[in-house]
Amino acid sequence: MYQGRTMFKIFRACKMRPTRMGFEPTRAEHNGLAVHRLNHSATSSCALPFRRLCTSVTFRLKMVDSQYYLPNDIGISALDCSEAFRLLSPQEKMYAHYLSRASWYGGLVVLLQTSPESANIFVLLQRIFRKQTPAQLEQVATAAGLSSEEYQAFLVYAAGLYANMGNYKSFGDTKFIPNLPKDKLKALVWASQAFQEQPAEMEALWDSCSCLLYSLENRQKQLGLGDKGITTYFSGNCCLEDAELAQKFLDSKKLSAYNTRLFKKEDGGKACYEVRLASAVQKDCAVDGECESCCGSFSFEDKEFTVKRGDYSRVMEKVCYYLEKARAYAANENQRKMLEEYTRSFTLGSIDAHKEGSRYWIKDKGPIVESYIGFIESYRDPFGSRGEFEGFVAVVNKAMSERFAKLVSSAEVLLPELPWPQEFEKDAFLKPDFTSLDVLTFAGSGIPAGINIPNYDDIRQTEGFKNVSLGNVLAVAYATQKEKLTFLEEGDKDLFIKWKGPSFEVQVGLHELLGHGSGKLFVQDDMGKFNFDQSKVINPETGEPVSSWYRGSETWDSKFSTIASSYEECRAECVGLYLCLNKQVLSIFGHEGQDADDVVYINWLSMVRAGLLGLEFYTPESKRWRQAHMQARFVILRVLLEAGEGLVGLEEVTGEDGKPDAQITLDRSKIPTVGKNAIHRFLCKLQVFKSTADVEGGRAFYDKYSTVSDTGAHNFLRLRETVLLRKEARKMFVQANTRISGDSVELVEYEGSAAGLIRSFTERFQDDAEQLESGLLELSKQDAPCWLIPGISN
């Protein structure tokens, strides 16, 4: 039996403890003028007597950290894909429709991958908004005593839950809670039509999630493993040592961790582990042509491991159903085979089948409708090996894709420009597809600007990959208002606004194609064969022959685990900075002369600024980074500051509002010399550690630059407070739906607002809403006892 109590007891226990919301913040504090780092004592019972003793203490206890709210004025934009969709043929529209359905249903898995309460909150919101639209509910809210600001805060929270597919930010992994008092939200739920029609069910649903919905106990403030935070990739009693042992077991069985979760239980005082594979099928025996099942019970290092199928089974069934529907409208045999293998993967829980599908996907060159689906990115697994589900469907933007095609054609000329020896580059550059896409559907916890996939090392090294840039995302995500531009000199702001978009387009292209697409991993396979000449390849950092490499089924993710994602993003970002100095690259993107110089300057300035903004995503209490890309950009800032010679300036100042501020400067004349040399040295070291599987050396090197302290030339801990004070919330996107009308497919669009985002989700699942919601609640309930850590406040 799993350690812990039932979910019902968990919530009862939570309800009996005073929560942070017992101390109501003022409106100014909600708007970001709060003292950061709420003291844990403010959420404990021992804090209560101080309210009577000292006004100043009371005021301090009221303060909350604004990073745990989504502001009412958060940017929300609609992703426009109407013209791209209109130009599709009827067959292509059907193909896109069914792939979108598969993606949206699969995206629901993220609720179960994020937190114990996410699925329940999702269902609560769906039931409320299925009965009443946001406009209809507003009158109910007013009658229930909510102000217009409080009702807007509720809508923003609901939109944030949908956009992040859970109650933790997809970019930064911090929890967000409703920016209105709990009793006001409860009053609104009770007054809703959904509650009036089913009071017992709605009250039970509220009781199942309302405590955790508002709780900001220390462990619940962020995602993490064990006592460091919340995760549902591991049961609550798992720690780093359990994750490491499980990875060794999976490697020994040649099983990927991408589609797994790990649950630990005690049996007679002995630790036993259950590895769950995401699959529609719940049978653990060999099925559908398998020679033997990967499932069963195994002894490993004096521990018992059981491998089982059936995780998220109800959701995976829906994904498979719609993939089968899409297959009937595939444009070619590669697409048909791809979807067949994806269906097999999600039916049986087989990553090998997903790899096979990915091989067909790579061969499907230049499709009009592009897509990818599965357990893809490992950013949010605290151990860095398990993939979050995502699925996207997009339409090719031919004009922009022509630029990327030219970049691909130039790759073999550009790769030798990178700072590592030829032996550390792949034996042959496998020219990938590189297309600019207008997103129709992106289901998961968030939408990136560009993607380089698949993530399987063995395929990327020898068979290839694809790159995509998401054009309609870039068009709205990085639009900037001058008054909201922080930490720059006034003279840089107009130039920044003019060239931020074009420079980021160059950076994304280089980052995805020649960043993630470059570099060799030295491997010795299971037969003892090496993919490099041991006698000749010299480590440029030591001058000695290479002495370490990947063995057997070891991969980049499994070896470098917790730092793998950020380290690789840092390497790719550095490639972008380094190669954007190349005039040929700039010419490909249409930039010549002074314009080209400005693009380079703003690209480097953007990276330096992003490094400072990255401090928002660092948690001092645990000394942990919560976002891979932002950690990478902070590391680059440190490297460029270390370069000296006046290349980068970072100064703490007082803003015009009298509050702490900071100012960044970059000497553009020194970018091609001091800056390039610094990135050259740093990038070479990153690649050498990666190629040679030198985990110890790579981790020590990367951790050195990731350190955030209050000593040295810059007090980064104090600068973090300034960044939090002046931060701007990340934008959210409203996506269209598709629906079949007769023999055709219609595009249903929504306004770029919290209400529009909410409506898009309630209409997205209306065909089988009740069945779907009950299935999600059942999946959530069956794992409820697994999330507590014995002896720790959860």
UniProtKB/TrEMBL annotation:
Positions of Zn(2+) binding: H511, H516, E569
Location of the protein in the cell: Cytoplasm
Any one GO CC term of the record: cytoplasm
UniProt cofactor(s): Zn(2+)
Transcription regulation listed as a keyword: no
GO biological process: proteolysis
Its EC number(s): 3.4.14.4
InterPro entries per UniProt: Dipeptidyl-peptase3 (IPR005317), Peptidase_M49 (IPR039461)
Source taxon at top rank: Eukaryota
Catalytic machinery residues: E512
Record flagged with keyword Zinc: yes
Keywords: Aminopeptidase, Cytoplasm, Hydrolase, Metal-binding, Metalloprotease, Protease, Zinc
Catalytic reactions of this protein: Release of an N-terminal dipeptide from a peptide comprising four or more residues, with broad specificity. Also acts on dipeptidyl 2-naphthylamides
Cofactor binding: number and manner: Binds 1 zinc ion per subunit.
Entry's Gene Ontology molecular function annotations: aminopeptidase activity; dipeptidyl-peptidase activity; metal ion binding; metalloexopeptidase activity
Family in the record: Belongs to the peptidase M49 family.
Name this polypeptide is given: Dipeptidyl peptidase 3
Gene: DPP3
